[in-house]
Amino acid sequence: MKSKPNITVTLRLSIDLNMSKLTRNKFHHINKDSWVWKVYLGYDIFMMVIIFVNLLCLIGNAILMSHFSQWFFSLIQHSEIINAYQQTLHPWVELTESWFICFLIVELLIRWGIAIARKHYTKWFFFPFVHWYEVLAIFPQLRFLRLLRAGLIIYRLYQLGYKVIPSSWYDSIQFYYNVVIEEISDRVVINVLDGVKNELDHSSTHKKTIHKLVEHHKDLFAQTIAEVLQENLATNLQKHRYDIRQQMGKMVQQAISNTSEVHQLLRLFPIIGGKIEDQVQHIGKRLAENLTDSILTTLTTGSVEQPNMLYTEIANKVSNININNQSLEKLVESIVYESLESIQKQVKVKQWQQVLKATENKNT
């Protein structure tokens, strides 16, 4: 099965490359033995740890405050445990969450100030847009986005050579990340292509669009035709030049031989008529060969970069043909439809399934 061009792979690679580039740009000027580097590294690890601790506390609190926990501890006859937690520890968890939100706000403002002072971005107000997930993660309803920040820290540390998580975990996360990106991008591309096909089916303006496209690419079309003629026709004419000359000479010689008027004329010369006829045939053959050779010389001059004037003129005439022709319009529409269907077919190929199958085959 052919691999899909494209769109999904290009999107995924661009995201990975951009993230790697950001990582390199942020730390490329820092010596790994310097205290600045150690501060960066220590701060990333600190933020990653407290984010995980905060989320674990919140998840545990949500579970213990649910009706399920009330039912479960009542079932095992230890209701006093859950009651003690709800009365004693729950308020403390709520208070630490408030402190943590205040910490995130102050931390974000400090980093924003550092970004402005060091001119990390073209405009001072770009920081909150670039770090949108950190801004949104401050709100309690969107606290799950803190996990995204922790994941990006882990990814950055992994790119820098610090294996925070086992390689097998990283490979699994990378695989499922690719699955999500591919499925989303595939769906977007398929919807766009369906919209284009629907527009072509029901719109009356697509012919104008096609005409504009053809008109816009007319010069390139002419140049391409000239180069194709020069590369293919001229090359083949040069390759078979001798055979063409010989064939044209034989054709003229045979034509003279088959012309009855020549025989009738030469009968007036009973002694030398035969010799004159042979000479006439030979002269005709040589004349045809020389004429053919001259024509072939004209047709085989030039190069792909600079096609000869004859091919250029032919290409210009072809590119200027009237495209208001039903047959031509149907041809262009057919090409467009088949191109869209071909792209859709390629996009529908699930590369992650191929990767998974190849991995399974390798393991077996």
What attributes characterize this protein structure?
16 helices, mainly alpha, 364 residues
Explain this structure.
The chain has helices at 7-27, 35-64, 67-75, 79-117, 127-130, 132-136, 145-159, 167-202, 206-216, 218-239, 241-257, 260-266, 273-300, 309-319, 326-347, 351-363. Among the domains are: 31-165; 211-324, no CATH class. 80% of the residues lie in helices and 0% in strands. The chain has 364 residues and is an all-alpha fold. The longest helix is centred in the N-terminal third of the chain and has 39 residues, at 79-117. The model is unreliable at 1-28 (pLDDT under 50). It is elongated. Helix 2 (35-64) runs antiparallel to helix 4 (79-117), helix 10 (218-239) packs across helix 13 (273-300) and helix 11 (241-257) runs antiparallel to helix 13. It contains 16 helices and no strands.
List the SSEs and their pairings.
Elements: H1 7-27, H2 35-64, H3 67-75, H4 79-117, H5 127-130, H6 132-136, H7 145-159, H8 167-202, H9 206-216, H10 218-239, H11 241-257, H12 260-266, H13 273-300, H14 309-319, H15 326-347, H16 351-363
Helix pairs in contact: 1-8, 2-4, 2-7, 3-4, 8-15, 10-13, 10-14, 11-13
The radius of gyration over CA amounts to 39 Å
Given the C-alpha coordinates, what overall shape results? elongated
Strand content range: under 5%
How would a crystallographer describe the biggest sheet? none
| End-to-end Cα distance | 21 Å
Count of helical stretches = 16
**Helix proportion of residues, in percent?**
over 70%
- Could you give the count of β-strands? 0
* N-to-C order of helices and strands: HHHHHHHHHHHHHHHH
> Residue ranges: pLDDT <50 for 5 or more in a row?
1-28
Give the mean pLDDT: 77
Global structural class: mainly alpha
